[in-house]
Amino acid sequence: MAISNAEPPGLVDLHCHLLWDVDDGCRGPEDSLSAAKALAAVGYRAAAQTPHARADFPSQDASLCEERLRALVALLESEGVPLELHRGAENFLDEAFLERVGRGEPRALGPAGRYVLVELPFAGSVPQLPNLLFRIRLKGLVPLLAHPERCSEFERPGRAEESARLGAALQLDFGALIGRYGRVARKLAERFLAEGLYGVAATDLHGPVEAERWIKEALAALEKKAGSAEARRLCRENPRRVLAGEELL
């Protein structure tokens, strides 16, 4: 099976929804295969599968996601798609998630299991965010905050900087740089990028429609705005460090 500890060449995506029929991502094996081919075509060689770990999706069931991950690994191997898959989940930052963390079931990213991808509500405030991050860190985990530029909580002045100081890492959804989520998200993404607040960048890919085109465009926008060295840090070096459980650069 392609899941391994080996460090792959090329780009590494830590946030995508290729597992079929488990959440709001790919619909059926054909969608998953096409989306994986799109990632491989633009230079990705590894991707953590991050289905939503929430009660409103079947992907709440970790065993179902593990079964689907193994099926997708087999499919990609049979089709010769050079994309190494890793385990993960997109965890909603609430008490149910914190209870799972307390039980030692965080559904963390990759073989090392040190980093855990978490998402906040897109709308509304999260006044207890510092305390929630602290509770995760107490368990020896590093919270990786998904698409902060799309969450209204991070429109609060200084909130992103505070989260980074508290030991969280911020994950850029680089589709924001080409306007996929509107003007506000684009403006925040550009500011956080300019201030060096992001630890990694990811696609948050949910399906194959025009995926190769827009991912290429977003990668080009990232390199244009931040430079090739920063793009390499966000899309290659740090994602590999996350999978290995190492400190970010």
CATH homologous superfamily?
Answer: Metal-dependent hydrolases
Approximately how much beta-strand content do the residues carry?
15-25%
Number of strands: 9
Biggest β-sheet strands, sense, barrel: 6 strands, parallel
Task: Provide the residue-averaged pLDDT.
Answer: 96
What count of structural domains?
1
Structure overview:
The protein is α/β, with parallel strands linked by helices. The chain has a single domain, classed as Metal-dependent hydrolases (TIM Barrel, Alpha-Beta Barrel). About 40% of the residues lie in helices and about 15% in strands. The protein is built from eight helices and nine strands. Strands 3-5-6-7-8-9 form a six-stranded parallel sheet. The chain has a three-stranded parallel sheet with strand order 1-2-4. α6 links the parallel β8 (about 170-175) and β9. α1 packs across α2 (about 60-80) and α7 packs across α8 (about 230-245). The longest helix has 18 residues, at about 60-80. Mean pLDDT is about 95; it is low at about 1-10.
